[in-house]
TrEMBL record:
The keyword Transcription regulation applies. It comes from Aliiruegeria lutimaris. The keyword rRNA processing does not apply. GO terms for biological process: DNA-templated transcription. This is DNA-binding transcriptional regulator, LysR family.
Length: 286
C-alpha cells in the first residue's frame, strides 16, 4: 500500500471517530491544519466528500459509510501486520512504552524504571501515566502495569503482587467522605461507598488518587486510597477497620501477540520482580 494513502486513511478515521478536527489532531499529535489538509487531499483524490461540516463538528455522510468501513478494515490489517513484526523483534534496544495509572507511575514505578534504564541503556523507555486503559490492539502502549482483578482476552501477563485499600484522614478533618469519580467510580471499593455512605455525607470528588490524597491532607474529609499511596504520607492517618477489605492484584502484561518480543519480555520480567518487593504477596489475596 502507498504510504501516503495509509496516512490519509489514518487522518480520515481519526476525524470520523472523534467528530472534530481538533480532537483528531490531539489524537494524532499533529496540528488542526494538518488534519484538515490531509482529509481534503483524501476527498479530492477520490472525488467524493466523506464528511459534512456542522457547527457541532464533522459527521460522516451516509453515502460515505462503506468507504469508512473499508478504511477500518485496512487499518485493522495494517495493525495486525505491525503486531506480527513487533512480536518477533529479537532486539534488546529501542522503544518500550509502559502504561499505568497516575498513582502507580508516581508512587511505585520511577525507581524501577530508572534501574531498568541503567541496566539496559539502549532501551528508550517512556512511562505513560493515565487513568484509562490504552488500546493495545492499536499499539498505543507496549506493557501494562495494571491494577485489576483479571486481564481481558488477548492480554498475557503475571501478577506482581497485591495491595489493599484503606481509609485515611487528618486530625480535625471534615466529617464527610471524598468521592471517587471518573474511572475510579467503577472499582469495587467505590461501589461499596455508593451503597454504604449517605449522599449528604459525601463531599468533593476526584478521578485521581493523587488528588484525593491532597484533599485528605488538606482536611477536606475522609478518603479511600491504595495503601501504596496513603501509607507513606506522614500527613495522613490510616483509619483501622474503617472499611471492609478490598484487595487488588497488580498485573504486568502485554498483548499475547507481543509476548515474545525480547525487549518487552525483558522489561516485563524486571518490572514484575521489582514491583513484587513493594506489594503484598499474591498469597495475601486468598
Amino acid at each position: 500500500m502507498n504510504k501516503s494513502l495509509w496516512d490519509d486513511i489514518r487522518y480520515v478515521l481519526a476525524v470520523a471517530e472523534t467528530g472534530s478536527l481538533n480532537a483528531a489532531a490531539t489524537q494524532l499529535g499533529v496540528t488542526h491544519a494538518t488534519v484538515l489538509r490531509r482529509v481534503s487531499i483524501f476527498e479530492q483524490k477520490h472525488g467524493q466528500a466523506v464528511f459534512q461540516k456542522r457547527p457541532t463538528g464533522y459527521r460522516v455522510l451516509p453515502e460515505a459509510e462503506p468507504i469508512l468501513a473499508e478504511a477500518r478494515n485496512v487499518r485493522d490489517a495494517v495493525l495486525a501486520l505491525d503486531r506480527a513484526f513487533l512480536g518477533t523483534d529479537p532486539s534488546l534496544s529501542g522503544p518500550v512504552r509502559i502504561a499505568s495509572t497516575d498513582s502507580i507511575c508516581t508512587c511505585i514505578l520511577p525507581p524501577i524504571v530508572e534501574e531498568i534504564s541503567r541496566i539496559h541503556p539502549d532501551l528508550e523507555i517512556v512511562l505513560q501515566s493515565a487513568n484509562f486503559r490504552h488500546d493495545f490492539l492499536r499499539l498505543s502502549a507496549d506493557i501494562a502495569v495494571r491494577p485489576a482483578i483479571g486481564l481481558e482476552e488477548g492480554m498475557f501477563g503475571e501478577k506482581a503482587g497485591c495491595f489493599e485499600f484503606a481509609a485515611y484522614a487528618t486530625d480535625n478533618c471534615r466529617d464527610v467522605w471524598l468521592r471517587l469519580e471518573g474511572p475510579l467510580q467503577h472499582i469495587p471499593v467505590a461501589k461499596w461507598m455508593q451503597e454504604s455512605i449517605a449522599p449528604d455525607r459525601s463531599s468533593i470528588g476526584s478521578d485521581s488518587f493523587l488528588v484525593l490524597r491532597e484533599f485528605i491532607a488538606a482536611g477536606a474529609g475522609y478518603g479511600i486510597l491504595p495503601e501504596y499511596v496513603g501509607d507513606a504520607d506522614q500527613r495522613l492517618t490510616r483509619l483501622a477497620a474503617a472499611i471492609p477489605a478490598f484487595r487488588t492484584p497488580i498485573w504486568v502484561a502485554t498483548l499475547k501477540e507481543l509476548s515474545n518480543n525480547v525487549r518487552f519480555r525483558t522489561v516485563r520480567e524486571i518490572l514484575r520482580a521489582e514491583i513484587a518487593k513493594t506489594l503484598r504477596p499474591i498469597s495475601a489475596t486468598v
